[in-house]
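Example record

The entry below shows one chain as it appears in the dataset: sequence first, then structure tokens.
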Amino acid sequence: MQNKGLIKLFAILFGLVSLFQLSFTFFANKVEDEAKVYAKANVTDNNGRELANFERKYLDSVANKEVIAGFTYNDIKDKEMNLGLDLKGGINAILQVSVKDILIGLSNNSKNAVFNEALAKADEAQKESQDNYLDLFYDKFEELSKGSVKLSDPSIFGTKLLRDKIDFNKTNSEVKITLQEEINTSINTAFEVLRSRIDKFGVVQPSIQRIGTSGRIQVELPGAKDIERVQKLLQSTAELQFWEVYSNAEVQNFFFEANAKVAELLKDDSATTQAKDPTKTESIDDLLGESADSTKVSQEKNLFTYLYPNVAQSQQQVSSLVAQAKVADTAMVNSLLANKEVRALLPNNLKYTKFLWDYKAQLSADKTTEVIGLYAIKSNRNDEAPIEGDVIADAKQDYDQLSKPVVSMLMNGTGTKKWAKMTGENVGKFVAVVLDDYVYTAPVVNGAITGGSTQISGGSMTVTEAQDISTVLKAGKLPAPARIIQAEVVGPSLGQESINASMWSFGLAILLVLGWMILYYGKAGLFANIALVVNILFIFGVLASFNSVLTLPGIAGIILTIGMSVDANVIIFERIKEGITEGKSLLTSVTEGFSIKGALSAIIDANITTLLTGVILYVFGTGPIKGFALTLMIGIATSLFTAIFITRLFVDGAIARGTNLTFNTNLSKKWFNNLSFEFLSKRRVAYFISGGIILAGLISILSIGLKQGVDFKGGRSYVVRFDQPMSATEVASTLKDAFGTAPEVKTYGADNQLKITTVYKIDEEGREIDDQVQNTLYNGLKSYLGTTSYEDFKPGFEKAGSGIMSYMKVEPTIADDIKKSALWAVIGSLIVVFLYILLRFRKMSYSIGAVVAVFHDVLVVLGVFSILYKFMPFDMEIDQSFIAAILTVVGYSLNDTVVIFDRIREFTEGKKSITANLVNKALNTTLGRTINTSLTTLLVMLAIFFFGGDSIKGFMFALIVGVIVGTYSSLFVATPVMFDTSKTEENNKK
């Protein structure tokens, strides 16, 4: 081998750089471990929120202190290896900026009937289509208008706002181009606003990126623990408004009349006992000052079943708070108060009233239920606020006279005049500060405020909340609402457990491989092991150097590349053994083994096919799947270098020292020698077996089906941990009452942990819906949670007891997109592989054999999952991770097949036809490599499967089945099909 000195220098420098980059991770972890010790010493009850606060306090105090060699904690934190959500915890969310709201805004809230009907039909069409919203709207508008009205009409987009861009003469297609430009501008603005908010959030190494032109923005915040805070920050439109407010005295008569009307509307419902105010001990009759016989309590549902009015019996009880309700009942209250018959009861002076909720729920007096306040806003025909947020010149977190956190705001000149007028006209009355349709404060006005300053306050507002509000106000208003349509949340406790499990499985996998290589190849195996360890160092060094994200599937990808690295050495060593067996010298055998005509051709072909599947995974995948693909691609590159060059350095060095390398041990030297198995003669039996397995799988798929994951069908999935072993069947039955239909409940890992999947309210939009579903889940599980409060139950922060460990939500619209993308990924990989093999081997029969084998492997794995998913004690869902596993199986199967095909091509070179004897000889001479590689890969995967995290078991099971089936298919499907088709080609040419 030439340039040995250069290769040595490169390897040493690359290794030192890798160690240097990884040292930042080591020292950052050391400081963070000290922070955890500090936090635990200061928190006695293991409260997750308090632990996080003390950790942050410690890290802030050492942020600018030197840790090592002039580097501060902030410096090394920026350079450490990034961990994904599944290892570190945090949130990954995809937000959809509402293109519909952008169009409505551009039309100046057009009342045109055709325009609004086209929007409604576009909403419906979007549920079943991957087309962008503007295209759907345009198609529906053309269909409905039939040329009767144009988009450039003054009642639609021919407005003052767009007069410089759209005139009446423009055609619909020209207007559409302008609208797309406006939409792109709005989405860019939304992206910049969200990035500004995230930068101020305080999470290290956040990620935010646009997804094509779909109006979707992906945000990943690894390490974020206050999940509720993140969700509010991301979805807050920052639409600030100042309104006059009706008092409870002014609306209480309406509530009593509405209560009677609602009782009529609900009289056909099942009877329930009238609810009591959870914050008070008095009944509604007590509030009214009436004495009611306890035997006459109404059994009918009415408004007061869900809403508790704040009745003013004296001037001292007059308040801006008009009522309260349980958080879980807010959707019902909204529905009842929006009912036409109920609103008809509002007197003329109240007819434009709109009811808005407080921004924050409070615990009831008995600490068992969360209740939230309701306010009556003095709206108008156009629902336009007297003062809006565009008058705010500055906002900051501050403290009031009682040292309570507030948001201080300074208005511009226009705002100052309007605010002075509004407060002057409402002395002794109430005004409300409303942010994104939530009331933050509604105080009584004591006098006109002329200085242009005001505050957002609240009795329970925290410093963090005040900081977040000032952040969103300064970052600016989103041009349209953005809602989370897909979210994955992993709590820090589960993340730490995943790290621990991964390290155990990773260490065990490496030991098994190292031991096997020494057992099989002796001293040469030791050289391969050194190259393998160097390969692992290089992989982690590259990931750390480029700030790549390491995920749990990423670790699986690294371990898979360990198998591939071993595979390269196995192919080389087997070639060298063949040369020695043929009587060639050791030096000649080594030279030929490391040459293109020897092992390198098969190694390069095999790795390129796997690299192609990795590229497709990276292009089509998201989140952890990208992490898997990235580590797979990096691993392929580093494993090729270490297997070919590092191993060669040690082998050449041993030969130069006169060492007699045999490339086997006394135990293994007779393994796989002089094999003469007639593979092709068994091909009809193999076809029959494969056909039977595939048929059974297809019958199961068509009758039983496959268990689709949340990201393919939509829904919400919660991993909930309890303090005691749980019965999945019992919990499903209990939650049926809460959700209306029984959710899917399955034990997840330990017997005190359940995965609960539900489609309850998944078609309803709004930030409050997520809160309601979570609250409903808590109330449904309350009897099993002991003393766990709702606050401790929520995802995020470390869990000392019961609670949500991880959470996933996928709306049906994006679920369809994910499913279609996954399908295209599989199809794309098959096409690419077919073309590559055709290009490389120049015969159609090789491509057909490889692709048939891949189809065979995919169908078998799908069939196994369909047949077994109801019986296995772990998740066997068909989701994005499963698709990653399928594509990996495709790559692995091709790896095997290409090595065999390469040997067949070598044996048939210069010959006019492919004979059965030559094919059988090629299969027998590569069988040692096939079994050896498959066995080492299986050892690695079994270690991860048994000792890795629960979340990766289904993924690893698919890989294990795929490796077994892929090994079988390369011997008994790919090669026989290639042989049969080549014979057909030869016969057709005659």
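Notes for this example: The domain at 716-809 is CATH 3.30.70 (Alpha-Beta Plaits). The chain has five domains: 4-80, 96-203, 240-266+302-477, 491-660+679-704+816-989, 716-809.
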